[in-house]
Amino acid sequence: MLKLGEYNMLEVVRERDQGVYLCDEEGDEVLLPNKYVPEQFQIRDILKVFVYLDSSERVVATTLEPFTTVKSFAYLKCTNVSEIGAFLDWGLEKDLFVPFREQSSKMRVGSWYLVYVYLDEETNRLVASSKTNAFLDNSLVLLSSYDEVDLIASHPSPQGWNMIVNQKHLGLVYGDEIFQKITPGDQLKGFVKKVRPDGKIDLTLQRHGFRGIEPNAEQVLKELKSSGGFIDLNDKSDPEDIKEVFQLSKKSFKKAIGSLYKERKIIIEKEGIRLVE
User: The domain 148-205 is classified under which CATH number: 2.60.40.10, 1.10.1060.10, 2.60.40.1510, 2.40.50.140?
Assistant: First the structure.
C-alpha cells in the first residue's frame, strides 16, 4: 500500500509520455511526473519518493523533499487564506491545507505556525492542525530522569516554555533554567529532570550534575577558540554576561571552567579565562 505523506521506496515499472510509473510490493502504482524523473534511470530501479495528493487530489510521487511528513510537528509559513481555510508552505508544489476548525487562532498570510500533519480519514487528505496539544499524550511516558530527548519549542507560559518531547509528549522547561533565546518551532536537545506521577515532564536544556560538566566544558572551549584563546569572563563575572556569551547559568559555567582548569586546558586569571596552548 502506498503511504501518503511519507517517503516510499518504489520500483520503476514503466515509462510513459507524462513520466514513469512506480510500484510498491503490493502492486499499487503511482506516477512520478517527468519533471521529477532522474536523468539516468532503468526499469526496475528503486527510487525514494514522497507520495501525496496533487492539486487535483490525485495520488502522485515527487523527489522534492517536504519540510515535514505525516504524523510530525513542523513550523510552517502561511501562504494563503481562502473561504475554506489556510494553506502552508511545506516545500511542495501544492501547499498544506489547514481547515478553519483546526486553527487554534485565525491564521494570517506571512505568519508562521507550529502545526501537526495528519491524514484525515474522512477525506483521505493530508491536512495540518495548529491545535497541537490534541496530538500529544502524556498518559504513558516511558522516560526517566537524565534521558536525552528531542524538543520542539511550542509556546511560552508563565512558568517557562512548553516543549514537544520526542514528537509524542508535552513537557516544560522552567524559565529560570533557560539561558538562550527561544522562539516557537526551535528544535533543541534537552534532558528529562523528572516525570511526575500525573505524566507531566519537567525538562532542562542542560545535563544534570556531573553529567553536564563535560559538554558544558566543550562549549566553553569552543567559545575560547573562536575568541582567540581569551574571554574576559571568570567565576566572579556577572551571571547575565556569562549567559549572553555561553548560554549557561553561572553555576554550570563555574563547573565547566573548574573541570577545564583541573585538566590544565585553561588558566583562570583575574581578568578572565585563557586557553592553554
Answer: 2.40.50.140
